[in-house]
């Protein structure tokens, strides 16, 4: 008997979507997820709207969080760190090519495909935003240890902060690489406010106990990312060409090319016509409209988030 496919599901209560801000956030998240197709980014499978909840159905990644692997082994060797970081960097390069800023890059949002695998995928686009030269991002979001200084300018709700863009993700990548190579955060303090003060000043050290055996090249990459002024921070093209990463990036691109070739072969096979003698009638796949959801005033908008899903949008009791 064929094993049934398993998926990860994010559940959103429809009553929470009566708040316009929450509804807009859900629309943005799903709109972004629909744009994505990359070997190192989690795939959206379907959006299903029920009477009381909306379900975002994603591919299941069963290998656990990068955070847990760091806790288990303390830190990565430089070779393993470069191979891992190249995967993360290539996923970010793809996002930025679509003008998408993740805004919450951290080990908890990087999952391994399966137990024992070294392949990772970036998840959780709840804070992601669409960037444009004439419409930069605003607002405070992310995680204290990983948030960029320019994002912190929005910490005081009474003041207008500084608009920001893709560079905020690059700062987070610098923090992430520091954690992967040392097993600890560059900005460590007991109180959140103290952490944010360290972040705002880019005040950190390469402590001898963790960094004595790490190459200067790896440290150089981190130093060029953890720069307070976004305009002076290393850019994505510069990262991809950095000596510490260049070979791992080339290997990562090769692996992606192989996956894309296999995907094209599978797609071609799926599109191959089945001989008439072996065809069987199938049920109409179009979803049927069920009972109204519990909040009729937002029904068109809630249903709208699923209309372009791989299997459409359905309302079920």
Automatic annotation (TrEMBL):
Source superkingdom: Eukaryota
Q: Which GO terms describe its molecular function?
A: ATP binding; protein kinase activity
- Please provide an example of a Pfam family that matches this protein in its UniProt record: Pkinase
Q: Which InterPro entries match?
A: Kinase-like_dom_sf, Prot_kinase_dom, Ser/Thr_kinase_AS
Q: Tell me the SMART domains matching this sequence.
A: S_TKc
In residue numbers, the region (Disordered) covers 269-317
Per the database record, which ranges form the Protein kinase domain?
A: 1-245
Bias type Basic and acidic residues, positions: 292-306
SUPFAM superfamilies on file: Protein kinase-like (PK-like)
Assigned keywords, A-Z: ATP-binding, Nucleotide-binding
Report the protein name in the record.
Answer: Protein kinase domain-containing protein
Q: Which organism is it from?
A: Haptolina brevifila
Taxonomic lineage is:
Eukaryota, Haptista, Haptophyta, Prymnesiophyceae, Prymnesiales
